[in-house]
Amino acid sequence: MKALRTPDERFAGLAGYPFAPNYADVPDGEGATLRVHYLDEGPRDAAPILLMHGEPSWSYLYRKMIPILVDAGHRVIAPDLVGFGRSDKPTEKSDYTYARHVAWMQAAIIDHLDLRDATFFGQDWGGLVGLRLVAENPDRFTRIVVGNTGLPTGDGPLSDAFMAWQKFSQETPVFDIGFLIDSATVAELTEGEIAAYNAPFPDDSYKAGARIFPSLVPTRPDDPAAADNRAAWKVLEAWDKPLITCFSDSDPVTAGGERVFQQRVPGAAGQPHVTIERAAHFFQEDGAEQLAQVLIDAIGR
Question: CATH number, domain at 13?
Answer without folding.
Answer: 3.40.50.1820
